[in-house]
Amino acid sequence: MSSEKMTPEGILEGIRDMSIRGAAEIGRKASLAVRLFAEKEIGPDVDAYLSKLQRFAKDLLSTRPTAVTLWSGVTFTLRGTEKAGDSKEVLGMIQKNSERFIDASLRAVVTIAEIGAKKVPLDATILTHCNSSAAVATIIKAHELGKVKMVYATESRPKLQGHITVRQLAEKKVPVTMIVDSAVRHHMSLVDIVIVGADTVASDGSVINKIGTSQIALVAHERGVPFLVCAETIKFSPQTLRGEPVTIEERDPAEVIDLKKFPGVKVSNPVFDVTPAKYIDAIVTEVGVIPAKAAYEIILHNLGADSLMTQNPEGAGR
Ligand code: RUB
Fold this sequence. Notes:
Elements: H1 8-17, H2 23-41, H3 46-61, H4 68-78, H5 87-118, E1 124-128, H6 133-144, E2 148-154, H7 162-171, E3 176-179, H8 184-187, E4 193-196, E5 200-201, E6 207-210, H9 213-223, E7 227-230, H10 238-241, E8 272-275, E9 282-285, E10 288-290, H11 295-309
């Protein structure tokens, strides 16, 4: 990240304009942004300080609505601050929380890769979509174990995150072939396993990930190809347990076409979709491989009933 982005406002803008992207990275950087903001804005009046923090948290949460990691990062970082006696204590808590959150998130990806690689068969042809750090780490680990014959990576229109994936894999000498999104079904007969990431996992086990993921899952299902999701437990959404739907982010039409060149044309640009649990063979988390339907238990275990009731970062106030 460039140094001008290493300000709270720079990180916020980076998440909004997608120069910071991918659910895990969004969560980690949101946590860092809260910490940097807290360090910059500390003042003697603890109530005023907490109000400022809440406003910044709200602004951060408005940048990208789908990935629950954004909420997880912000909420975890502010956890407990409402009970602090003074501003210095608030700041100390935020610094400690942020360090713990970022460290746990990075360690989770390493563990997922170790576990996920075991699910990859020998001499495997893998298909992946978009750019997921957890999926890419798993594929690289499987490659290190000598298991990977070829990876098909989708281009991932309109933002072309597939370019990042193919570069990351090629750098590690993983054999990789880029395909356009619409070529997935054509290639599925060659594929042994699909490995993708997640932005959010709902309490019913459905997975919200880059637009097109659900089509890939359907095609994999049609061909009997296992469909594996790599997702840290911070991506499991407590809000869905309370019945709240996951907002699917709709982005600027200009990402798809130059509207000036297409007068009278409307563009729909949803950037995530929902893959139902029945099309998912397993979710690899840092606490193990689970059936998608076990999402409910993960959420309960992570949060406990009490935290479910106080999940709003605005609860950081007094
Ligand atoms: C990225 C995307 C990724 C998930 C998981 O979408 O859909 O598959 O975020 O990534 P965008 P990770 O580019 O719109 O953020 O495993 O790195 O958390």
